[in-house]
Design goal:
Helix content is 21%, strand content 30%. By secondary structure, it is of the alpha+beta class. The longest helix has 13 residues.
Length: 251
């Protein structure tokens, strides 16, 4: 049996998901809460290695359970939440009977959102979850360029050094840019993402919207993998993992 948790967290106070030495991470706290609440020793795996400061609306993690485990699936969330800080919450919990489910490997789609606003001065009530950019942007120009980035491509130029992957080819199913109540959002759905890929895509499209990069430069970057032709890596606080999809619906 495998337990599956749907988690929401504010990543401001943490050094990302992955367990690391001498720092507090989401995984380390969830691992400890699971062991203390359920009285079991297990190993939790997450759907994505989010960076320090990145948030999540629908993060998924999983861990194996002993065969004699008796707690009802829906009660796991309530039990574990008692041992977690208020900025990390298990929203839903379930148990799948097949041991092949893996929160990361079994994922078929991931959806992220990058949020930003245009203003000369920081807005304190927005700054925790959105990034200030200036000067203003041309949203239509960004939307037009976003269409060109969709599909199966080599996104090497949209990744920073630090990840060890077999291939830099990824499929982007959709990129949706819109503005509502002064907040710009970039929603991007793909089969997976390289290290810092979403934040670099956001930085690249913002640069296009501000006239600092041309569409042709981004297309050239895809062709030759030249990182210097793409935009900057945007700050982590504007990024939120929205949801993860699996071949068989979990929640």
């Amino acid at each position: 049996m495998v337990a599956v948790l749907l988690i929401s967290f504010d990543g401001t106070n943490y050094c990302g998901w992955q367990v690391q030495k001498n720092v507090v991470t989401i995984q380390s706290l969830v691992q400890k809460a699971v062991e203390e609440s359920l009285k079991i020793q297990t190993k939790i795996v997450g759907c994505s290695r989010t960076d320090a400061g990145v948030h999540a609306l629908g993060y998924v993690c999983s861990f194996p359970l002993p065969m004699d485990f008796k707690i009802p699936p829906e009660q796991l969330a309530f039990a574990i939440n008692q041992f977690l800080p208020n900025d990390i919450r298990i929203l839903k919990s379930t148990i799948v009977q097949h041991d092949t489910f893996h929160a990361c490997i079994s994922a078929v789609k991931k959806r992220y959102r990058y949020s930003f606003y245009c203003n000369k001065i920081d807005k304190p009530l927005l700054q925790r979850y959105a990034v200030r950019v200036y000067p203003t942007i041309d949203l239509k120009k960004m939307q037009k360029c976003a269409i060109l980035l969709q599909g199966t491509k080599d996104f090497k130029a949209f990744s920073n050094a630090g990840s060890n992957v077999n291939t830099t080819v990824r499929t982007i199913y959709s990129i949706v840019l819109k503005k509502e109540k002064g907040i710009y959002t970039l929603d991007i759905c793909g089969d997976g993402f390289l290290y810092n890929m979403v934040r670099i895509l956001a930085g690249s499209l913002i640069a296009v919207g501000q006239g600092r990069l041309k569409e042709s430069q981004l297309l050239q970057a895809i062709e030759n993998g030249d990182r210097s032709l793409t935009g900057k890596t945007m700050p982590a606080n504007g990024l939120t993992l929205i949801n993860v999809e699996y071949a068989n619906k979990i929640f």
